[in-house]
Each structure stands twice: as C-alpha cells, then as structure tokens.
Design goal:
Structural class: alpha+beta
Number of domains: 2
Radius of gyration: 37 Å
Length: 279
C-alpha cells in the first residue's frame, strides 16, 4: 500500500514538471523566414512566417536603409498582413508603396517585423527576428543621352552603359584603344615630319634636300590619316551613344505611369470626374 501511494505522487510530480517545461512555449510569438521582393520598382513586399500570435496582437514593419538609416513607412501606403487581426501562418505579406510614399529605394535596405502583444497585466513588446534574406536589387535601367558626354572623354566607354538589358563591354574598350592609339601614332608622325623638314631646310642643294623632303611628306601623310581616322571613330561613337540614349529615354517614358490623370467616377450616386496627380 505504501509503495502504491509513493508511485501515485511520483506520477503527479513528473506530470507537473512536464507542464512547467511547456509553459514558456505557450503564447510565444515567433517571426521567421522573412524575405523582401521588389515590385515594379515602385513597391516592395515583405513575406514572413508568423506563429503564436493572438488577434489582439499588433504587427508592425520597420525599414532601415544602408545610408539613410531608419525609414518611416506611412500607414496609408501599407497593405496586407500588418496591424491587428493578423492570422498566424506562413507567407504573411506586407506591401509598401515606396514610390508613392516618396521613397525611391536605389540602395540596400533591411526589414524588421515587430509584434506588440496584447497586454495581460502589463504591456510588452516582442521583437521578431531580423531579416535573413538579401536586400532587393535595383533593376538596371539603360543610360540616357547624357552618357554621350562620357564618350567625349573616353570613346567607347559611354556606349557600354546605354546597352540593354544590361551593360555590355564587348568591343567597346577596343574603340577606346583604337582612338587613343591612332591619335598618339599621328602625333609621333607629325613630330618626325617636322624633324625631317627641318633637316630639309638645312641642305644647300636640291639633290641633297630631296630625300628629307620626301620623308617629311610621308610622315605628314601618315599623321593626317591617323588623326582623321581617330576623329571619325570618336565622333561616330559619340553620335551612336547619343542616339541609343535618346531611344532608352523614350522607352522609359512609355513605361512610366502618367503623373496627371482624369478618370470618370461616382460620388453619392452622381457621375463625377476624378483628377489625380502623382508626385
């Protein structure tokens, strides 16, 4: 009888200890697997997994950029699974209209999900895990006509940045080498021509002077051909870069939403015209 009584209380103690071990896990909020995606360069979406939260708990989004520090998304430009009544589960989604909110994110950013639990005895805030995913990448936009100025300084280089869908080096560095190489060769030939012509003027008779004159003329001819060819390649590259840049600029304007729009609508059952201006 005494042995059975001991076993009875031993089972109760083990069950009580097991319950104590599980208590910290009950009601614990956890945010995991946070990801960031870019939507059409005008918005970002933050995906995350949420467990352990209650309907009265509040979910917040915090954004920090690499150079500008902490950013403050305005509530009217946020949508999706944030605030209260967020259901626990996988792939919870928050969308922030960054461009409409006045932020043009062309740098690395970092997102943090904050969960403020509903107060039981005293309010407390639970900080979720930080973003483990890489920052969104800025979509490459082919350069405009301003890159022709770069080709003025370095022929061929400006043309690299007006290519699409990404910069292409290819033969363009060869254009730089050819232009500068021909220009340098032409200047060397001009110096040789002047040296030969100086010797030509020092001669006392025509027979002795003629070879110097011929060599000076040959060097001058090579100088003329090399420098003009270098200039032709240079100008052609500048014009081609400018034309390609103008086309890229026009293409961007076609895909950009208009800032001013006038759309039909209704208000209180009456037809009205809705005027919108985006900035």
């Amino acid at each position: 009888m005494h042995q059975q009584y001991t076993r009875y209380w031993l089972k109760r103690v083990v069950a009580f200890l097991s319950l104590l071990c599980t208590l910290p896990a009950i009601g614990q909020v956890a945010v995991t697997n946070i990801r960031i995606n870019v939507i059409d360069e005008s918005a970002i979406e933050v995906l995350y997994d949420l467990t352990g939260n209650q309907p009265a708990d509040s979910v917040y989004l915090r954004i920090r950029s690499q150079t500008n520090g902490l950013l403050n998304p305005t509530a009217q430009y946020l949508s999706g699974d944030w605030g209260q009544d967020v259901q626990p589960g996988t792939n919870r989604r928050i969308v922030w209209q960054t461009l409409a909110n006045g932020f043009e994110l062309d740098e690395n950013i970092r997102a943090t999900i904050l969960v403020k639990t509903a107060p039981s005895t005293a309010p407390q805030t639970s900080l979720a895990t930080k973003v483990p995913e890489p920052e969104p990448k800025r979509k490459y936009r082919p350069g405009g006509p301003e890159f022709a100025l770069l080709s003025v300084v370095a022929p061929g280089v400006g043309n690299i940045f007006v290519q699409s869908p990404r910069p292409v080096i290819g033969h363009r560095l060869g254009i730089t080498t050819a232009c500068y190489g021909l220009l340098f060769y032409g200047l060397v030939e001009r110096k040789k021509s002047r040296d030969e012509y100086a010797l030509y003027e020092q001669q006392r008779n025509r027979a002795a002077a003629q070879p110097y004159y011929d060599r000076a003329n040959d060097h001058h001819h090579r100088y003329f051909i090399a420098t003009r060819l270098s200039g032709a390649i240079w100008v052609t590259d500048i014009v081609a870069t400018f034309i390609k840049g103008v086309r890229n600029q026009k293409q961007r304007l076609k895909t950009t939403e208009p800032k001013v729009s006038l759309l039909p609508g209704t208000q209180a059952g009456y037809p009205v015209a809705v005027f919108q201006y985006k900035f």
